[in-house]
Amino acid sequence: MSHTSLVNVELKGDVAWVTVDNPPVNATSSGVRQGLTDAVVAVKGARVAVLRCAGRTFIAGGDMSEFDKPPVEPHLPDVVQMIEESEVPFVACMHGNVLGGGFEVAMACAWRIAAPGTGFGLPEVNVGLIPGAGGTQRLPRLVGMEAAIDLACTGKVLKAEDMLHLGAVDLVADNLEDAVNRFVAELPDRPVPVSQRTVSDFAPDLIDTSRESLKKRAKGQQSPLESLTALSWAKMLFSEAQPMERARHLALRQSAESRALRHAFFAERGVSKPMLIKDAKARDISRIAVVGGGLMGAGIATAALNGGLSVTLIERDPEAASGARDRVEGLLNGAVKRGKMTETQFQNCLSRFRSVDGYAEAADAELAVEAVFEDLSVKQQVFAELAQNMDANAILATNTSYLDPIEIFSGIENQARCIGLHFFSPAHVMKLLEIVHTTHTAPEVVATGFALGKKLRKVSVLSGICDGFIGNRMLAAYRREADYLLADGALPYQIDQAMRDFGMPMGPYELQDLTGLQIAWANRKRNAATRDPNERYVTIADQLCEKERFGQRAGKGWYRYEEGNRKPIRDPEVDALIEGYSSAQGIARRAFSAEEISSRLLAVLANEGALIIEEGVAENSEAVDMVQIHGYGFPRWRGGPMNYRDEIGVPASRAKMDIVASESPGSWSVAREDF
Ligand code: NAI
């Protein structure tokens, strides 16, 4: 497509209408930049130019596929500057989203008119960048420093109504075309260009206090702080600061953080379309049954109600059904209290919800998710009941974490309709959904799982069957190496600190204390008989459990806790237990640096991920990375363990894994390098 067709100029009377038409989001690709440059020339002679976009949105960002390549002329800052300096003043006429480069273009226009609900933001921070076409310099001049920080350092999107309030938009109007026609008919005096204005006064310590709070929230991510630094340059002349912003923007395009965040952005979209369902058509699901209304079942029901579905929750008896109803109502109420849901939406959710103690009411559901106790025979019984009461074609799903879905569904006729939908706790909050297919599951059923995941606003990842599926299997490997480090010389707080320094929200031991040590203990006991006798097995966690140190709720676990306080406190009793274990095993304890600890744990994660891909359990490294980011808090700005491995280099990661494997012989399979 030639650039001329991306931007069209049409003269109606003395008004030039400049229309960008570059679907799907009118990104500022090189063709659009050239088209806009030509348009500034073409509108000469008109009284005013209106800049608008075809399709569903105004310019909603840059073309990310250009970010890895050398910049191509004309550059966006020059285009923006031309629009601002054009003899013929521009009116931006906006709908949909006005993001990144789109917002930068809009700020260069003399006036801004938007449809109600239009979104405005500078989301560059979300992909490890700062704006590069004057965004950090014009925004504080337009809305003030405080609002500019709020937008540019968080990537937040504000609505046209808020922007009107901030003075960044001149008019919000339902019928845009009419409004623009009326506006240009009686054009006000042309205002001073935004770049030539001064930033209004702000609190002297605003930059410093913002830096502190951003640092805390960013957990190692740099781009919010980079944005803040660039915003602080707005005290200088625009002509001095803008080239500095541009240079920083271009440098950041090459940063590991930006590569990682762009990888995550594309992976999120990529994992929703696995090869397996390439040609499959999803069913539209609107009514589901959830069996078991405990921690997980209540969360799943809440997520489904939020997603607009009708939910029948089935519990064991009337009392349990009423308890489950209270739990779901409580979760929905929490959303109302936090301002995430209106009272009307709350009532609407409740009208689609019932909690019962019999299967007959599941008859009209198109899909059932089971979230009862982690017990094979209980689950088998539940599915026998569901099969009897539901349509013969209805989809049957299990939320099991560790049991084999093939065994769970063994008594069911037509196993093509059986699937695993593995949610993460709390299920109404956590973004990850592992969609587990068995050898029998029909692609159309898998596709329906993905469609359901989308309704529930989850990031769905396809997983085959193995112990713990993708996520919990990797977690087990991670914890195993952490335990080896404990046995060989590290202490829990050192390991936790090392992983937090890497960017994890929590280290492995504080996390175990938070979620409780019992489930993993039960799993270890269950697996004891089948565990490879050559595998090194560290009993420290078992010893803690035997002492009923089950974690935060018990007041003690890997740490001790003071009444009513969640802060982990190092416990000499635990240190002594660990040291006693090492000496009983004849291990001479040695020191591990934070770098050594994190590099080993990351090598183990990457290795397990590579094995999972090799075995075909995960489709690719994007799938593994999405599981880690959305289910386990792996820092998004590191892109996931596979992306991190690629960033430091496969040979370095492999070399570290070889050391790990050699120190605990018989305990690790090392992935091939050529998968
Ligand atoms: P839970 O113990 O909180 O809830 C289980 C619920 O199932 C209880 O309310 C119980 O009354 C009900 N129930 C038991 N037998 C039933 C039957 N025959 N018919 C109807 N209801 C019955 O357990 P939780 O934590 O919610 O776990 C449920 C399932 O979810 C398990 O398979 C677990 O492995 C899986 N899971 C748990 C996660 C977690 O973090 N707790 C995460 C992901 C999956």
CATH architectural category of the largest domain: Alpha-Beta Complex
Distance between the termini: 38 Å
Form type: globular
- Helical content band: 40-55%
Biggest sheet, open or closed, and with what strands and sense? 8 strands, mixed
Q: What structural class do you assign from the helix and strand content? A: alpha/beta
Strand order of the largest sheet: 12-11-10-13-14-15-16-17
Characterise the protein shown here.
The protein is of the alpha/beta class and 675 residues long. The chain has three domains: 3-254, 2-enoyl-CoA Hydratase, Chain A, domain 1; 285-463, Rossmann fold; 471-663, N-(1-d-carboxylethyl)-l-norvaline Dehydrogenase, domain 2 (Orthogonal Bundle), CATH 1.10.1040. 47% of the residues lie in helices and 11% in strands. Strand 3, helix 2 and strand 4 (90-94) form a beta-alpha-beta unit. Helix 4 (135-143) packs across helix 5 (145-152), helix 12 crosses helix 13 (318-337) and helix 13 packs antiparallel against helix 14 (343-351). The chain is globular. The chain starts with 6 loop residues before the first strand and ends in a 12-residue tail after the last helix. The model has no long low-confidence stretch (mean pLDDT 96). The site of 1,4-dihydronicotinamide adenine dinucleotide (NAI) has 23 residues, from helix 12 and helix 15. Residues 291-297, 314-316, 320, 371-374, 378, 382, 399-401, 423-425 line the site of 1,4-dihydronicotinamide adenine dinucleotide (NAI).
